[in-house]
Amino acid sequence: MEVRLLRVTPKGEELLEYATTVSSHRLATRTLVENDYSSVLEHIVFTFDIRGLSVAASRELLEHRIASHTARSTRYNEEADFEYYKPRLDEPARRIYEEAMERARTAYKKLREMGVPREYARYVLPMATHSHYILTMNARSLINFLSLRLCVRASPEMRELAMRMLEICRKEYPQIFNGVFCRGVTQGTCPENEFRPKECPFRDKIPTRKEIRMRGIVEEH
Predict the structure, then answer these.
(1) What residues does each domain of the chain span?
(2) What is the CATH number of domain 1-74+131-181?
(3) How far apart are alpha carbons 16 and 82 in whole angstroms?
(4) Which residues are catalytic?
(5) Is the pTM value of this prediction over 0.90?
């Protein structure tokens, strides 16, 4: 997977400071993030070029609707030699998986050789097929995206994408993104509650929302 930054709003922190004076009074960028005064963050916009992302993962990206999405069209592009996502699998699962990909590739090529249009042949392409994706998001939506997709429960491919995007975001605007990670880190409590897995690195450091609520109930009584 390759993730490149195509464009980002320049001098964003100056823009945020000005926007806060219009709204109420001037606030530091870090204060805006920590206190969740986040509407002004929408004025900072990132555009990413994403290559080597599976069609399956691109469908997950579409769940983030406050964004602009453009993907390579399988209707107009030839996919005879498509590359595909390779999850970490043990034998014989890896062999079965790769054989399925090769059968799909062979079927696509045969259909095209028979004169079947791309828009029909593409239906044999697997969800693992790599796509080329352009994604534009504002900083507020990015915080939401990263907080969801950096969770250990997120799919491995989406988590990899989120990690690469976070690295770019932190480089461009550290005051906004240095404190961003999964929802537990970003929000200070984990909303996964009983679904938080054992492999969560913050399991013994960040309380769940349910734990916070129970503490309040016990203290009241």
Answers:
(1) 1-74+131-181, 76-128, 188-221
(2) 3.30.1360.170
(3) 43
(4) 149
(5) yes
